[in-house]
Amino acid sequence: MAASCRRKASTMILREADSFCDRDPPQTDSELSRRQKQSMHLISRIGSISHADLMGRSHPSVSDQILEETKAFLERVDLDESPYEESLVLTSKISALCNADRMQHL
Question: pTM for this structure?
Answer without folding.
Answer: 0.92
